[in-house]
Amino acid sequence: MLIVTDTAVDLPAGLARSPSVRIVSGEVRHGDRPLVSSNEELWDQIRRREPLSTAPPTVEALADAYRQREMVCAIHVSGELSATMSRAREAANRIGPSLTIVDSRSFSVGAGLVVTAVHRSIDVSIPEAAAFDLASSLPGRLHTFALVEDAKSLKRSGRTGLLPEVHLHNRPVLLGIRGRALYLEQPKDRSAGLASLADHARSSAQPGLGAWALGHGNATDRDAVVQLLAQAFGRAPSFVTSLGPAVGTHVGPNAIVVGVISGHVDL
Questions:
Q1: Between 84 and which of 56, 190, 208, 229 could a Cys-Cys bridge form, CB atoms 3.0 to 4.6 Å apart?
Q2: Could you give the C-alpha distances from 1 to 71, 119, 130, 188, in angstroms and in order?
Q3: Which helix (H) or strand (E) holds 128?
Q4: What are the two backbone dihedrals, phi and then psi, of residue 11, each rounded to the nearest 5 degrees?
Q5: pLDDT digits (tens, 9 = 90+) for 201-219
Q6: Beta strands 52-55 and 27-30: pairing type?
Q7: 98: pLDDT confidence band, cut at 50, 70 and 90?
């Protein structure tokens, strides 16, 4: 079985290189030109507030990824956050019944946890039907939170619809993602925001946290943040990764994205 996903889903580096995973890229543009740069150069451009924009994968690129001899499980960014899901369904119509599409109802490392769990199930050779069932069930147990360092990052990326206009001053913003992005609060500083993120994540993971992962926007304090949240959650993260351009362009430098899955999950 092949897992197909997209670049708005952030994965651990090893998993992104797995032969069982195929990632379909959208496009990041610098002004009117496609952006071609390293991760370090990307974050330099984001910090300089250069005009960057993103586009989801094309129908053609998705259909090409789905067109395999083996069964395909496609796990994508939430359909309420991106046009990727609608394009995925259009692509699926060209392929036929050898394909299952799952809306993760999340993005970044939240959706990455779903991909990781399904990949783990392939590694231990569970039946394909059970792997598809797992992929379909996990979004209901998944909660994702994003601490955006500066609300103006959302404004620059065209995502001001996520926030009431009154909240667009220079302070962190905490968002919850359950299908769509929900404004939760605007803490006074980063320390308060991380504490609040941990509280929301613990509350959402009842009756118990099964796994969590962290993505960061090239954050210089990432090790301290991992340590803080590991203490709060009582366990180490399943993985930590730098946010890719599809997400980092919108949430900005120093952003923290945390995905949590409630209940038992094998990772």
A1: 56
A2: 5, 9, 12, 47
A3: helix 128-137
A4: -120, 160
A5: 999 998 899 999 999 999 9
A6: antiparallel
A7: confident
Q: What's the CATH class of domain 141-262?
A: alpha beta
**CATH architecture of residue range(s) 2-140:** 3-Layer(aba) Sandwich (3.40)
Residues 6+ apart with CB under 8 A from 205: 143, 212, 260, 261, 262
Amino acid identity for residue 14 in this structure: G
Question: Which 3 state secondary structure label does DSSP give 262?
Answer: strand
Unique residue bearing structure tokens 């499980």: 73
Q: Coil, strand or helix: which one is 131?
A: helix
- Residue 142 to residue 113: CA distance in whole angstroms: 9
Task: Report which residue type is found at 190.
Answer: R
pLDDT at 166: 47
Domain ranges, ordered by start, for the chain = 2-140, 141-262
Strands (E), the chain: 2-6, 21-24, 27-30, 33-34, 52-55, 72-76, 99-103, 142-148, 173-178, 180-185, 209-216, 239-242, 256-262
